[in-house]
Amino acid sequence: MNLEKTGKFIAKLRKEQNMTQEELAERIGVNAKTISKWETGINLPDSVLLFNLSKELKVSVQDLLNGEKIKKEKSKKSFIDIINSYVFKTKKKFVLLIVLTIFMLTFLFSIIYTFSNYNKNSIYNINFSDNLYQINGYFIFSPQKLFVVIPNFNYIGDNINTSEEPIIKSFSVSLENNNGEVYFNNELDLNENIQFISEVLSEYKIDYNEERSMTLLNKNNLKDLYLVIIYRDKNDKSFKSKFKVKVDEEFTNNKLFY
Q1: Rounded to an integer, what distance in angstroms lies between the CA atom of residue 82 and that of residue 78?
Q2: Bridge partners for 206 per DSSP
Q3: Where are the domains of the chain?
Q4: Largest separation between any pair of C-alpha atoms in the chain
Q5: Which pLDDT score, from 0 to 100, does residue 82 have?
Q6: Exposed end of the chain (fewer CB within 10 Å): N or C?
Q7: CATH of domain 122-249
Q8: Does the global pTM surpass 0.90?
Q9: Tell me, what's the pLDDT at 166?
Q10: Distance CA 136, CA 245 (A)
Q11: Where are the beta strands (DSSP E) in 86-225?
């Protein structure tokens, strides 16, 4: 359908009947500016006005839509072609609208998800090494929980595998700040089954998690973090070691693109 062609055809038929735009407008119940828009191809009458217009100009609706008078044998085919063209364009617009809607919803969901999780997932390395202990692990902060994972906990004292190596009955590890405020505590009771400390720590692992809303440990106090180790030897004598833990950021989702 060619709006410009249809518009010129309307103007031609009006002039053939010696009608002004005002006269035609009055007959079909619109204003002259509307007739002008039709004739210049800006827009097309709706179905009711199209029918009334065809009666006033003494042509068929198919003729108006086609922009010229068509032969009777082609009329039916031309009308069907016009309807098919309209249906195709309508379906095309509908499909495009669905695609755009899906795209916008996906984009909106991505934006909401990104900003709701922005800077809330972090992984920090835990490292410590002195003349007695070697420790490696992770702090993992998610929006819901804090995870403390220390899979490597080793005793490396010079007295290892000698008669001077401590033989222990219990062992505990706690994370706290310099003021003694405890973030979490993990105790290991050997049930009087005494072992060398190196043997105990070779199998000792920490896998701890707590709701973020419950824990006192957060990203802001990682710089003031101390690991406290207490063990009780075979003679029930307690030994305590407290040392500062080195914490390094490995990952934080504080970027929109990686």
Answers
A1: 6
A2: 150
A3: 3-70, 122-249
A4: 124
A5: 61
A6: C
A7: 2.60.40
A8: no
A9: 94
A10: 10
A11: 122-129, 133-141, 145-155, 167-176, 182-189, 195-196, 206-211
Question: Element (H or E) spanning 157, and its range?
Answer: none
Assigned token pair, 14: 């009006």
Domain at 3-70: CATH code: 1.10.260.40
Closest CA to 219 of 187, 183, 255, 243: 183
Under 8 Å between Cβ of 5 and 67: yes
pLDDT along the chain (258 residues), means of 10: 85 91 91 90 83 88 83 54 62 81 81 61 88 92 88 91 92 90 87 87 89 83 90 92 89 62
**Which residues share a beta bridge with 242?**
228
Confidence at residue 43, expressed as pLDDT on a 0 to 100 scale: 84
Determine how many CB atoms are found less than 10 A away from the CB of residue 192.
8
Cα–Cα distance for residue pair 204/161, rounded to 1 Å: 18
- DSSP structural state of residue 212: T
For residue 258, the model assigns a pLDDT of: 45
